[in-house]
Here is the input.
Amino acid sequence: MRLDNTLPTDHTTVCLQLDFYGPLLTERSREVLDQYFACDLSLAEIAENLAISRQAVHDKVRQGTKLLSDYEQQLKLVERHLETQKLIDLVREQLGRHETDAAARTLDQLERALLKT
Here is the structure.
């Protein structure tokens, strides 16, 4: 279990960024971030698994999350994904309440969001 408070804490955001931008990282960085965020292993556990120092794991986590954040700032794929998902959920709710006019407006908004560059 992780106890280090100096590392990134927004777990969900990092996991989403890792899903989108993970292939842009080195294999070792992906492996460290996956073990840290997806498997919730401590720095010491990851260090033991990979036969590297705890400091090396810490550095990989910091560098990797910084890269993921930089990619998101430039590309905004996670932001667009969350916006799209929110609109899809809203359309489903509106259709479930038989609010077809509202759903049509939301679909127009969704279309604009998807076409945005």
